[in-house]
Automatic annotation (TrEMBL):
Keywords: Signal. It comes from Zestomonas insulae. It comes from the Bacteria. The keyword NAD does not apply. This is Porin. Residues 1-24 form the signal peptide. It holds the Pfam family Porin_O_P.
Length: 436
């Protein structure tokens, strides 16, 4: 029922956006004058900025091909899918209230039971510079996650984010968050969340997140950024808690929705942990440090992260660490936009050739492990596991709406292979993105 009504609303909003661009005429209101913008979706706001809304969205169509460790038998496989297909509606009401609804038609966010919402939130800004946010949204953890998927440099965020996916994903729950911005150089946030995982009594998993950022330099092309993150959730009395330390190693097509993937031959290996109903756990914690520097068209950034899961049974505690380092350069000279706490888009200076960006990122995962596993698509030794991932890519920002990307990925593993014995794999991903 929710999807049916939302689909009708989405169709009406889209029709309104198209008609607004097709016809011109006189607009009258019963109060303050309004301004209508149709560049990049449909935006309507009163001149006093007390009311307004914007209808937009993003479409990311991916094609990938991969082999070796990325598949169970080592043979080549491919995937063609919508990575994201969002309709986004956001706005302001009565000056101090803001809302945002992002619905994912590719079904990579949410679920059939809870609705495929990437976000559905309400914020109160009347205590500026303090902002209070409520509803369904991703908790804050990490620099790459803070950067929108529309403008993140690589096609997929670093490989360790998969290991700590619960830290920055809403898992269909609800949350409340308070954030504070000091001038243009410091930002802190803290939030509490109720996740869609229950214990035997129906009590949901509770999670706490905190992020702090200091940016002595915070202008496009002149950035110096430092940050720290913490997240913790309690898994007390949760049967079959999912504590799998697993990663796609940068190749989403091994297992995804939104179209065709490599399943059942895609290898999304588990480096440690389990979701067995016979094992019980206590606190699950994650820490992270982040840093970035940018000068002109060049940017350098990295994050270090750690996850620990305390055992409440006979099994051993779990632990993993990871990091990435990324360097990017815009060949056409544009600087990457930066807003306090996150990077943003690249705006092409030349409308004919657009903006061209090249980048390299190195990811590393190390997980403590003492349990041997022979699974459908991988074999894990009773020893600590490791993965190294090299990513080399190019982005073409044809204009402010269209982005075309390509990325080559090379993964190498230790103490874990696919069923064919491969401990390395190669993959290539292409994406066509349209943002409105």
């Amino acid at each position: 029922m929710i999807r049916k009504h939302f689909a009708g609303f989405a169709a009406s909003a889209l029709a309104l956006a198209i008609s607004a661009q097709a016809f011109a005429g006189t607009v009258t209101t019963d109060g303050t004058d309004i301004v209508i913008k149709t560049k990049g979706g449909l935006e309507v706001a009163t001149t006093d900025k007390a009311f307004g809304f914007k209808v937009g969205g993003r479409l990311q169509a991916d094609y990938s091909r991969f082999d070796g460790f990325y598949t169970g038998n080592g043979n080549s496989a491919d995937a063609a899918y919508f990575r994201r297909a969002f309709l986004e509606i956001g706005g302001i009401a009565f000056t101090d209230w803001a809302y945002q609804i992002n619905y994912d038609f590719s079904h990579n966010s949410g679920s059939s039971d809870d609705g495929y919402f990437d976000e559905a939130s309400i914020s109160y800004t009347g205590f500026n510079p303090v902002v209070l946010k409520f509803g369904r949204f991703d908790p804050e953890f990490g620099l790459e996650k803070a950067t929108s998927s529309k403008w993140v440099t690589a096609l997929e965020r670093n490989a360790f984010y998969d290991i700590i996916d619960w830290t920055n994903g809403h898992q269909n729950g609800m949350g409340a968050q308070a954030s504070y911005t000091y001038s243009n150089w410091a930002y802190v946030s803290a939030g509490a969340f109720s996740k869609d995982i229950n214990d035997a009594d129906g009590d949901s998993v509770k999670q706490f997140n905190a992020r702090a950022v200091v940016a002595p330099m915070a202008e496009p092309g002149n950035v110096l950024h430092f940050g720290a993150n913490f997240a913790q959730r309690s898994l007390d009395d949760v049967t079959a808690a999912d504590v799998r330390y697993r990663s796609r190693l940068g190749m989403r097509g091994v297992e995804t929705t939104g179209g065709n993937d490599a399943a059942p031959n895609g290898n999304r290996a588990i480096f440690a942990g389990t979701n067995s109903a016979t094992q019980f756990w206590d606190d699950d914690s994650a820490w992270g440090l982040e840093a970035a520097w940018a000068t002109g068209p060049f940017s350098l950034q990295g994050e270090w992260m750690k996850r620990e899961t305390d055992s409440a049974g006979a099994q051993a505690d779990l632990e993993a660490t990871g990091y990435y380092v990324q360097a990017a350069y815009t060949l056409t000279g544009e600087a990457r936009d930066y807003k306090l706490g996150k990077f943003d888009k690249i705006k092409p200076a030349n409308k004919q050739i657009g903006a061209w960006e090249v980048y390299y990122r190195y990811d590393n995962i190390s997980a403590d492990n003492s349990v041997a596993v022979t699974a459908t698509n991988y074999i894990r030794e009773a020893d600590d596991t490791e993965a190294k991932v090299h990513n080399l890519g190019v982005n073409w920002y044809a204009n402010e709406a269209v982005k075309v990307s390509g990325m080559y990925t090379k993964a190498q593993t230790d103490k874990i292979t696919n069923r064919n014995g491969d401990d390395d794999g190669d993959g290539f991903v292409m994406r066509l993105q349209y943002v409105f």
